Amino acid sequence: QSASDSSNTSKTMSDVKWEFPRENLILEETLGEGEFGRVMKAQAWNITRQQEYVTVAVKMLKGNGTHAEEMDLFSEFNMLKEVCHPNVIRLLGACTQKGGPLYIIVEYADLGSLRCFLRKTRRLEVSYTCQVGNPTYFVDGGDISRQQFRSIPWAELLSFAWQIANGMSYLSNMKLIHRDLATRNVLLASGKVVKISDFGLSRDVYEGETYLKRSKGRVPVKWMAIESLEDNLYTFKSDVWSFGVVLWEIATLGATPYPGVTPERLFQLLKAGYRMEKPNACSDELYSVMLMCWRENPHDRPSFKVLVTKLDQMLLQTM
Ligand code: ACK
Predict the structure, then answer these.
(1) From ligand 1's centre to the CA of 32, what distance in Å?
(2) Whole-prediction pTM value?
(3) Spatial distance between the Cα atoms of 257 and 250, rounded to a whole number of angstroms
(4) If both were cysteines, with which of 198, 211, 225, 264 could 185 make a disulfide (CB 3.0 to 4.6 Å apart)?
């Protein structure tokens, strides 16, 4: 392709450094599907230049993806090219050429999403408690008593929180706002290493530190900061709010936030000062961090750097 006939968009879309031959990719089962996207498990030949097949995850659009969704996937590709951190999902390559669909190839996280992982731990406990009675503890959104029902060590939960804060601290240093931080978008690789994923909605911050969302799509209301709900404003500090919700998800082993509250009612409740209660299974210290993340004024919320330090201290206390 000559310089004269390549548009600006196609220049950012294809990238020789990352291009992977489609014929070297064997797609396997679907790992998950969203409204427009699909993630498939696959085997990639020689992607690590080791003359071997490596298990990878391939992100693509479903048939009904529009141009805007395709742009979101390209934007995710472009973000991933810039980042390299142990707690952020790693880009391995992409198939952008030869008229086929766009494939983004990332490292495979064999333990799946943190949300599923946490809920599975809980399900094991359901069968256990069912034998001793009272399964009502496990209604979605309900709390789990720390002493009685949690089989996953508290230090492990804190380690997940610490790793997410660490990855987010890196992203904010890179001037990237995630905009959809939630345990469903955090993956676990072997060794329970956290990988922040799903950059579809994330944006580079070129001007100032605020991103104003232009169009209304499906929005993750229960993870959104008060200013994002009110004015579509996204900053590093709105990611910090979402991180507070992630801490709540971790402490409840993957419950859905604001149980019983409809998304329509949430904004008024938050505006009136309502915040989620401390989960039974949560330390006072971790809950106080959640409340800091949910302060109405974004400037009063801690940075990810401060959150890493706080979680570090909490982890040390468990040793
Ligand atoms: O909880 P899961 O099994 O793990 O369901 C979701 C689903 O796809 C939609 O995001 C899974 N998934 C996404 N990316 C990856 C990946 N890189 N490695 C493994 N599973 C993934 C995720």
Answers:
(1) 6
(2) 0.86
(3) 11
(4) 198
Q: Is 39 in the pocket of ligand 1 (CB under 6 A)?
A: yes
Say whether the ipTM exceeds 0.90: yes
d(CA 304, CA 163): 11
What is the model's pLDDT at position 66? 78
| Residues paired with 39 in a beta bridge | 32, 59
Q: For ligand 1, is residue 187 a contact (CB within 6 Å)? A: yes
User: What confidence tens digit (pLDDT) does each residue in 225-252 have?
Assistant: 999 999 989 999 999 999 999 999 999 9
First to last CA, the chain: 59
What is the amino acid identity at position 165? Answer: A
Residues 6+ apart with CB under 8 A from 149: 125, 129, 137, 281
Name the packing angle between helices 304-317 and 284-293 (round to 10°): 180
pLDDT classification of 121: cutoffs 50, 70, 90: confident
Distance between CA atoms of residues 42 and 56, nearest Å: 5
Beta strands in the chain (DSSP E): 25-33, 37-45, 53-61, 91-95, 103-107, 176-177, 186-189, 193-196, 203-204, 211-212, 233-234
- Amino acid identity of residue 8, one-letter, is N
